[in-house]
Amino acid sequence: MSPFPFASATTTRIGITGLSQAGKSTLITSIINHLENARRGSLIQQAVLTDVAHGLWRRDAPHAFDYDAGLQALTHRPPYWPASTTDWSIARIELTMTRSWYSSKPRKRMIELFDYPGEWLMDLALLNLDFPKFCQALWGWCSQSPRLELGNALIQELAAIDPMAPVDRSYLSQLQQRWTEFLADCRLPPHQLSRNLPGRFLLAGADFKPGDKPFVPLFSTKLAGGAVPDKFPAQSWGAVCAEHYKAYRDHEAKPFFEQHFKQLDAQVILIDLLGAMTAGQEALKDMRAALDSVLQPFRYGQDHWLGRLFRRRIRRVAVCATKIDHLLPEDQKRMQSLLESYLYETVQRLAAEDIDVNVMAIAAVQSAKLHESADHVQSLIGRDKRTGERIRFTPPHLPDNLPHALNLKIEDLPQLSPPEGLDRVQAFPARRIDQLLAFLLAE
Predict the structure, then answer these.
(1) What is the pLDDT of residue 221?
(2) Distances (CA, A) of 424 to 25, 41, 427, 428
(3) Fewer CB atoms inside 10 Å of the end CB: C or N, the chain?
């Protein structure tokens, strides 16, 4: 059954995903909350949204997003952040619009938010790669810092394997498990790298069993060095890994995009740009390369199946940097400017393909409040996520301009809990959720 049963022209379908730890579940919960409170929050300030009377979350959607769990987390005492996505889901919101002059009946509009893990989005990079090219691409990443230092022993073992030699299946399974652990380490502080493939090794979902057909990239010069043999012997390392990789690419990654992406009208990609700034230059480079990779299909021509898939419907893309509330007001403005500079080439390339792109710095739920002392010194107040204690802190200042080489590193920011006192019947405090919805829902 299609996850999008409504064929009405009044249905807008929006894909929402995010690179690691960007706060996607919180954003979706906040969007539903703001639509439920359309007349009581900031949405009425946007011309596109002034005729939204209210929104109704539909529990009857297949694979329904667990809005109840999001509300329970944010309104709990003490509050906590909603759990991260582990599979795909749909949040369906029925909007009642104000009556038009020519009709006494309220108008309806359906919004569907297709929520899926950012780890799966990264698998887009695999769809045009055969196994040798997959190995070459990953060798290009793993032969350089910081991945080389982080996974040195594993990388050396993968380079020592002769792809023509008979496979040791028990050892292959062990290597796959170690590769998965390596990917998990790569995306955590202090490195915070974004290109971690294959994505479903990190987050399998309900239907994929990584251990059924294990594979790993092989870094022998016969593969990673470009000297690819015409054929691998049967039951060799190269043959088995190539077969299992192809099954993953063609029967796990590709069908997901074919089934779901052709239904979408718009796409939101969340990034933790502040987190990458605290990690430094390599994290910033890796995140931008990851975004370029996943947005590449929008630039394919109609003669390419990926081009036909992505250009058929998706006309709007929003790339949002989260947690802007962790900065002082002047630095929030700088953050927007830095984000625009960071993604300048990406936006220009998509604009050339008639894709409407918007980059914006947002806060799905504002967890820090501004404090100004008697002598006009600004700081922020929030609750420490680890201790639950109320803290006051001065966040790092951002530069006016982004260095072209991305050699930028800022001090660490505190991990904050959601604010206390949130209530479903009031729009949650947020930054620029109204602007994001206005962009996505514009006719």
Answers:
(1) 86
(2) 16, 12, 7, 8
(3) C
Q: Which helix (H) or strand (E) holds 92?
A: strand 89-97
Per domain, the residue ranges of the chain are 11-120+257-441, 124-254
pTM, 2 dp? 0.92
Three state DSSP letters for 143-190: CCCCHHHHCHHHHHHHHHCCCCCECCHHHHHHHHHHHHHHHHHHHCCC
Q: What is the pLDDT of residue 9?
A: 41
Record the tokens describing residue 12, joined without a space: 């807008």
Distance CA 219, CA 237 (A): 12
Which residue do the tokens 């058929």 mark?
312
Domain 11-120+257-441 has CATH 3.40.50.300: yes
pLDDT tens for each residue of 374-394: 999 999 999 999 999 999 999
Output the CA torsion 198→204→209→214 (10° steps).
20
Q: Sign of the CA dihedral 14, 15, 18, 22?
A: positive
What letter would DSSP give residue 47?
Answer: G
Q: Which two tokens stand for residue 159?
A: 């380079």
DSSP per-residue string spanning 330-395: HHHHHHHHHHHHHTHHHHHHHHHTT-EEEEEE-BSS---EEEE-TT--EEEEEEBTTT--EEEE-P
**HEC per residue, 227-266:** CCCCCCCCCEHHHHHHHHHHHHHHHHHHHHHHHHHHHCCE
